[in-house]
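Bench notes, bay 3.
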Amino acid sequence: MSEFRPEEGIFDLDDVRIAVIAARWNAEVTDGLLAGAVRALGRHKIDGNAVEVYRVPGAFELPLAAQQAARTGRFDAIITLGCVIRGDTPHFDYVCSETTRGIGEVSLKEALPVAFGLLTTDNLQQALERSGDNEENKGEEAALTVLEMLSVFKQMQGK
């Protein structure tokens, strides 16, 4: 089990809407991340019409899609899910760096919780371990992160 796990609690989050944006690239992995995120949201009674899933080609497209989702004003939080596996060229470094920067920028510019569910692994086995139906599923962690952030925001607003 990882050292940090978002707090698993009872979130008082009636009427929240969450966009989940998942890359199609490395689908074997991203499908597992998506399943983990949906599972975690469902455990906290956030499902059905409260969750909208969108697929994009790859990790590099996650920030732009997150920005578009945020700018619709329809969502209270966004979960981004993707996977980049190290190869023999510097492509890995560029994609990881720019995707990470872009997702963080969307969260700050749009003042919205945007969960970072991007796996950056050395090999496929590491990615599969972090996207399987187990306690290490980073899609589940990303979902719990946005729920916790939404709860914190609600507390800050005195609600």
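Next record in the batch:
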Amino acid sequence: MSRFLSRRDKLRRAVRRNSADALLVTNFTNVTYLTGFTGDDSYLLVGAKQDLLISDSRYTEQIE
């Protein structure tokens, strides 16, 4: 398991413990810590079963 996936799993458990459906991470430093994605103007939605990395089209190749 990658360190990024491990970090998101830990966060996902905290989200569930607090009875939330998801958490939106808006600080790009935190997005980088959780995903390894280094582009700014990005958001990460951590849900109960999956995550969604949101950014603009300048970073399409890096996100893939």
